[in-house]
Amino acid sequence: MPDIFNSNKNWPENQNPSLTKDIKPVHPTVFKSKDLHRLPGHTHNPLSAYYYYPEKVRFVNADPQEKVVLLLRKHPITNLGWLSLSFLLIFVPFFLPLLTFNAKIPPELELVLSLVWYLVLTSFIFEKFLNWFFNVNIVTDERIIEVDFYNLFYREISDANIDQIQDVTVEVGGGVRTFFNYGDVIIQTAAEVPRIEFEAIPYPDGVAKILRELRIEEEQEKLEGRVR
Amino acid sequence: MKEGLDKQYFGINFMSNTTVLENYALLAIKFGISFFLLVYLIFAIVVIRQVKVMTSTLKVGFELQLKTLAYIHFAFTLFVLVISVLSLIIPSLF
Fold first, then answer.
1. How far, in Å, CA of A199 to CA of A188, rounded?
2. Taking the CB of residue A64, how many other CB atoms lie within 10 A of it?
3. Reported pTM
4. HSE value, Cβ hemisphere, 13 Å, CA-based, for A25
């Protein structure tokens, strides 16, 4: 009887996919310091939206051995709306006589009103900036963390282990998102928080790929009994 | 003109052509702004506290700059409050 399929037995040992021990993760969790700087997406800019293997990033409740693989924020272009609005609002006090229908306002009151306006505007800009800065998504070699900073008084931190990830969906829609290459990564988990969303992050496909590789790595660790 | 009739109280000349109602309205606005700024000062302190909490939650090497911004915001609030109170007490300064 003819063989339907004959596996190639002439694989060189280092290329044979059946030898799982030889499969090395594409994103090893331990890098030498000099190698880190050559990684694409590795940056020291504190205002970056995409950090790959950041060195200085530390977060609360991190395990001592836990290594941060990714730190993500919303793409900077998402700030364009409030930045444009703030820029326009700078000029509002110049139109104060028009806004008050040319009512006679004492000069000291005019000054105070302008100062109050700029104070509130400063606060608006600062709050929006903090909102962007602290709304982060962290991917470590053990788990994914979502920090939601809704306003100055309310924040929410949720996390799920890498091995609890069940499904990763990438959503990139619209011309602006396609042009600037940013989108949502939606992660379904088996953890208490069933859905973790990385919103408007840069390079969503790359992030999904890294998550997949981390899951494979985690499964491999489980098989080899190296689970922390 | 009789002595003292053109005296100003809280920067408002009650003997001017504008009606008394308008003068009281201006006075109420000035007091209202000062009160608003006093409450705002508390908000600025809360912002400092919140920034401290957030920077301890997540460290990326930008903590000092953020804390400085929060303190600048507080200082600006204090400055505007002082200006507002001064404009209420000594309006001739402006």
1. 14
2. 4
3. 0.78
4. 19
Residues A49-105 have pLDDT tens digits of 898 888 878 888 888 888 899 999 999 999 999 999 999 999 998 887 777 666 677
Can you read off the two tokens belonging to residue A39? 């990684």
Q: How far apart are CA B11 and CA A100, in angstroms?
A: 19
Which ranges constitute the DSSP H helices of chain B? 20-57, 63-89
Please indicate if any CB of chain B lies within 8 Å of the CB of A157. Answer: yes
**Residue B61 in 3-state DSSP?**
coil
Element (H, E) at A58: strand A58-59
**CATH 2.30.29 corresponds to the domain A17-74+135-223:** yes
**Contact check, Cβ <8 Å, B54/A134:** yes
Domain ranges of chain B: 8-93
Distance (Å, whole) CA A77 – CA A86: 15
- Rounded to the nearest 5°, which phi and psi values hold at B16? -75, 180
Q: Are A133 and A147 in contact (CB under 8 A)?
A: no
Q: Touching check for A68 and chain B: CB below 8 Å?
A: no
